[in-house]
Amino acid sequence: MILSLAVILLFVIYGILILYYWLIWRSIPGFMDTGDMPALKFSIIIAARNEEENIGRLLKALQEQDFPPGSFEIIVVDDHSTDKTAAIVSSFEQVKLLKLQDDRTLNSYKKKAIGKGIAAAAHDMIITTDADCIPPAAWLRTIALFRERSN
User: Fold this and answer.
1) C-alpha dihedral sign at 120, 125, 130, 134
2) How far are the Cα atoms of 28, 31, 72, 143 from residue 151, in angstroms, in the given order?
3) Under 8 Å between Cβ of 38 and 123
4) pLDDT lower than 50: segments of the chain
């Protein structure tokens, strides 16, 4: 009997907590794109290893962003690829290609690749993405609008 009451009490408390969270969630205003073009500049860093099947689609999607082309740079760090990843990246004129040097003491090449990309970045705002991601056309503008509104 006591166990049943305890379970019912916990269920009621849990239900009230979920209702509270739902009400708070509903009170957050939705994002409205004002159409303004933010003045932020980004460095987009992509650590890639053997991504010949994906990297071209990603770079094409980044070049098709509805964000001013001079407001962002794309840096691809080739993490010891053994396929045509570097050749595909080199075919994109506005993309900076960096290559990791052999360092057999590392156990986390992706972190090293991102660190090298950050060191080469020209802008303070850094965005990282994986080579197998395809962002929508408004991706950079949305990030920039959220960043400007949060300040």
Assistant:
1) negative
2) 17, 15, 20, 13
3) no
4) none
Share of the chain above pLDDT 70, in %: 92
- Residue 104, judged by CB atoms within 10 A of its CB (0-12, 13-18, 19+), counts as exposed
* Helix, strand, coil abundance in the chain, percent, nearest 5: 45, 15, 40
CB atoms within 10 A of CB 117: 21
Using CA atoms, how far residue 58 sits from 17, 21, 24, 80, 111, in Å, is 42, 37, 36, 19, 20
Structure tokens at 110: 């992706």
Contact (Cβ atoms closer than 8 angstroms) between residue 55 and residue 88: yes
One-letter amino acid identity for 1? Answer: M
> Do residues 76 and 55 touch, judged by C-beta distance below 8 A?
yes
Specify the pLDDT at position 42.
Answer: 93
pLDDT per residue over 4-35, tens digit each?
A: 999 999 999 999 999 999 999 999 887 777 66
